Amino acid sequence: VQTVIGGSPYTIVSRHKNQPSNDKAADYIEQKLEYYGLDVYNQSFSSSGRNVYGILTGTEFPNQSWMICAHYDDMPSGSTAPGADDNASGTAAVLEAARILSQESFPYTIIFALWDEEEQGLVGSNYYADLANANGDSILGVINLDMIAWDSDNDDIAEIHTRSVGNSYDIKDKMVEVNSVYNIDLTLQIDDPGTTASDHASFWSNGYGAILLIEDWQDFNAYYHTTNDLVAHFNQPYFHLMSKLAIGTLATFALNLDLKIVHTPIASRENTSDIETSANIVTGLDIGLGQNAPRLYYRIDTGNGWSEFYHVVGIPAEASGAYNFIVPGQSLGTIVQYYLAAQDENSSIVTTLPVGGGGFAPPGSTPPSSFFQFYVATESIAFSDSTASLINWTSAGGWNTTSTKYTSAPLSFTDSPSGNYPSNSNATITLNNTVNLSGYLGVILEFQTQWDIEDNWDYAQVLLSTNNGSSWEPLEGIYTNQGTGSFQPPGQPLYDGTQLNWVKETIDISSYINEEIKLKFLLMSDGLIEEDGIYVDDINVIAFEEAPTSEEQLAGGLVTYSLEQNYPNPFNPSTKIEYKIPEAGLVSLKVYTVLGKEVTTLVNEEKAVGNHEVTFDAGNLPSGIYFYSIKTGKFINTKKMILLK
Hints:
With 645 residues, the protein is mostly beta strands. Helices cover 14% and strands 39% of the residues. It has seven helices and 40 strands. Helix 2 packs across helix 6 (236-254). The radius of gyration is 29 Å and the shape is globular. The chain starts with a strand and ends with a strand.
């Protein structure tokens, strides 16, 4: 399509870095941004590379900026490279943002950035971000648009790629909120940790918050990097929605209209008293009062399905923006789900936590799609392992204990204790015995973990089996993301990228109640890059008991499964071990060496409900670390003890 550049007609036939019309494309971008009345700058970073920026200076915070960006260069390398979806689509959306927003004033500066040579390895954006970091530039956040116009199946799916860098999660949350509040209604999938294959990654590398908005990877553009990547293949309604979402998110931040709820989720509890919690509303706006005041919405399930949502209104605390909430006490055997909502006094901005809800006056009348959840129930441990030994597990492919990293001394599990995992690794560690989940109200799998795994290729998973290992299902947790590419299982929850600090992974496995389950941890690698792998510590299957029967209530409550620490410890030569069981049945209690060799069987018989105690005499054993392990029909636990002579 012919256009006018510098007063003369011109047709841009390619935007590849080595083609002369790529520089003409930069001239066209510069011309457009100047026409919109912006301050325009060119930044040359090589003989061929040229970034173009339009600057809308903020009225209150001119030295603090929000950025929307896209790369304008394209592929393939020949003389014809239309590059419509990749990435004229993102470039056009940035120019449209400049056209619309240039007519308004904003407290913060907005940078409309168009990058060159993304296709050669993020060259232009890396150059800018490195300089910005070196100069201490205050970049508040970056929205990167790359391929936003292909939707061949009309399902309106889009991906937001984010990572734990700067305020990237906040930008992601705001985009999810804008999508809901303003009824854009794209189906958003969150990739965390997101891909590093586009220009937002240049900002992650320099510690700046950034996200990528991109079309659905599973519905991949059939004309990618070909001469047939044409505007004719655009899904125009989808392209319009993607552009609206990006521009709306940017405007919300640049107008200083952010409204954020900070809250520590309510923990499960065994008491039935009123539940007090709090939240901080972080905003530069005036928070709603009266009917518009912050609210906590909750619903309950006592075994008969979910109730309607009830609500409590927040009570302002002494600290600015802090609110207290009191949820009425619930009976034992209750599941509670809840979310929080807040709006400004003018009913122009609303947010929920978890994000995704909406509705004004009162705020949050439209619930989000996910909720916080806790149990009012007696808690027991269905399985516990401190990862000090492989007694309970079968290892294949390299998994073993390591003292290099741990949360509870002295050891953790890892797939590659001697260094980086090898190429073509298929390493597993599988629980030997099943864990019985019969008769519980809810069940959670918890473990401590950290990892360093090649992004978008190698991966780790935690898997569950209900048929003694004949088949396995991958589990989705707080920190998993969906598999992508040709090596990872597409769409399956997995761990990749880097998480270099310990985090507590929590996975709700209540859907497997009344099953006998096995667990497995897996590390898979391809034939190229080798990294440190994944570490796992303090594995627990936490079960929440159903409501006590009238007989149990009359008897004074429930006895729960437990295996106590031996006493004394360290010991010489004997020690006492106490355990509790709430159901009569076969109990096995054995002692092992640190290498997993069985030393003796202390108990192997039917036991009644209640507290039990056994004495272990180690008079004929050498000093050292030993483990004692209990197994019942519904409970497995292992603890460490030290013999000092």
